[in-house]
Amino acid sequence: MPLCLLFCLMFLSLPGATLHRHGSRETKKRVKEAPVVSTVAPMSGDFAFDLYRVLATAAPDQNIFFSPLSISVSLAMLSLGARSNTKAQILEGLGLGPQMGSEQGLHNSFRQLLGELARPRKGLRLNLGNALFISPTVPVQDTFLSAARTLYLADTFPAHFGDPAGAQKQINDYVAKQTEGKIVDLVKDLDSTEVMVMVNYIFFKAKWETSFDHKNTHKQDFHVTSETVVQVPMMKHKDLYYYFLDRSLSCRVVGVPYQGDATALLVLPSQGRMGRLENGLNEKTLRTWLKMSTKRQLELYLPKLSIEGSYQLEKVLPKLGISDVFTSHADLTGITNHSNIQVSEMVHKAVVEVDESGTKAAAATETVFMFRSAPVSPPRVILNRPFIMLIVENFTNILFLGKVAHP
Fold first, then answer.
1. How far apart are CA 407 and CA 384, in angstroms?
2. Domain 214-303+378-404 top-level CATH class
């Protein structure tokens, strides 16, 4: 039986949802500025959307939610110890080609990104970390450990997998602490063949810039399919939002900012056009949305939602060409000299909750003089059927991606 490396990814998102209302001069000034695209984007956006399509194909009409950033960081860190075709598959899967520079450039970009994401932000918490739990009986290459610590800020701990129950408790206790008890029992059914467990976690908690008014939340129909309708608590708010009508993909895109340089993109396809939208998702599409969005007054209806996703990536990533690392063909000799080591399991879990909570609504009085005319109602965007949701950081990095099929 080969020695096994269990790779666990975990992602937790708990954004307290509040909608944007420009209640201060500082806020007004910032929302009028065009989005500034960060230069730090080590991973290919196409990897995120390719992975989304694989998950959507496997579970049509189901909720999808995952963190492309979390998965990309983990794969990039794993590539540090991969060799030959195993390494090539990982790097190609992440989109590293001649046009994207060197492998070292990829790792340096991730190091820079992790450093930027770690900086404190008012109203937003984003903690990302990596940990290696290693059996003392298996010698791990110093070069791998040093690179993991330096480039990916990984913590390392000895773990005695000869006592699977003890090792499992050690890892799960660590995870629970890092996520403030929100994720428990991440690792299950460890056995004595494991030699290392890698854990990646992202804890995201943010507030919109202004909260919804609870008084405006009412039960409304959500059309899961043409035949299935469920009642959901629907939040409502009228304000200025980034907006773009993508005629080529028959969808409307609404950008709602969180505090701290994060933005939720809510993408509502026209009736019956979800498949067309999903097939057209790519990095170029995302850049178009971000570049072409303009501010306009909208009446936005957004359901309160709580969805989660749990994925066995060793069954998913081979469909994107990353397969050897999960088989006896794996070459992970950059991690240890043992030739019979492979990744036995790669778990990714994600959860998102959206509700009215957030900062106190800004109290401001603004007097505007205008010619009298008949009041004009702003256009409505009612998210009462399946839609796609992205959370992007600094208008570049895709932190989270999913489909809300059933709130």
1. 10
2. mainly beta
